[in-house]
């Protein structure tokens, strides 16, 4: 008896194609490893979990929820490996996913540069409104919309102190919290943001003429030298996980819309879920005496 299109779920191959309609793998950086990492393209997909990191806690969540596919922002195997034995951290993840019948897909720098992408979600989370423009445009984009980072404005000027508090309120709570560099009474109106590590974009933030730059993983020496420069923007450093987590809901919504466009509403019956598991590498912070 044929299966009704109202109850059948799409194949993993169709879900991957829908993801890549929105986040083409050709947009990824040459060093990146995006796309399907684990899974049989012929398998059916009913539930998709979106998460930042492909780690044990996320696999636990996927198994408990009954996910058929996990879409992560960060790759599991960014650097080459010569085996996936289950007694290694990455191999253990691969084995657990396969045994549970769960596929793994990565959208990393192709989601960073997309419009909207990771930094658009971060910009909205920290209160930027109105049109956004790339901080570092993608030279291959004729429309000038894609690129790394975003530049926008707050709905009303505020002090750096209040802006940093707004950033903290708009992102998931983590042990390290939010750090700021600069005069806390400085007025902030125009802001640049970049999900992920933003050391390489410090000069671009200064050239953009913004009052503050929100990003992650800023190192001591570059940050110190940057803030000593006259007229340099203030810096707001957020945990890497927290700065990229806001994109998950956008990615889930984009997948749902793309499936409807590709397959039609009756065949696009896939449930999505955003992981709330905090996977920041730093689990504890101890204030100095």
Characterise the protein shown here.
A divalent metal cation binds at residues 73-74, 112, 240, 244. This is GTP cyclohydrolase 1 type 2 homolog. Belongs to the GTP cyclohydrolase I type 2/NIF3 family. Pfam families: DUF34_NIF3 (PF01784). Helices cover 33% and strands 23% of the residues. It is built from ten helices and eleven strands. The longest helix is centred in the C-terminal third of the chain and has 17 residues, at 247-263. The protein is globular. The chain starts with 11 loop residues before the first helix and ends in a 15-residue tail after the last strand. Residues 1-6 have low confidence and may be disordered.
How would you summarize the topology of this molecule?
Elements: H1 12-22, E1 35-38, E2 47-51, H2 56-65, E3 69-72, H3 89-100, E4 103-106, H4 109-113, H5 118-125, E5 128-137, E6 147-159, H6 160-170, E7 179-181, E8 187-197, H7 202-207, E9 212-216, H8 220-228, E10 234-237, H9 240-244, H10 247-263, E11 271-274
Parallel strand pairs: 2-3, 2-11, 3-4, 8-9, 9-10
Antiparallel strand pairs: 1-4, 5-6, 6-8, 7-10
Family: Belongs to the GTP cyclohydrolase I type 2/NIF3 family.
Binding site for a divalent metal cation: 73-74, 112, 240, 244
Protein name: GTP cyclohydrolase 1 type 2 homolog
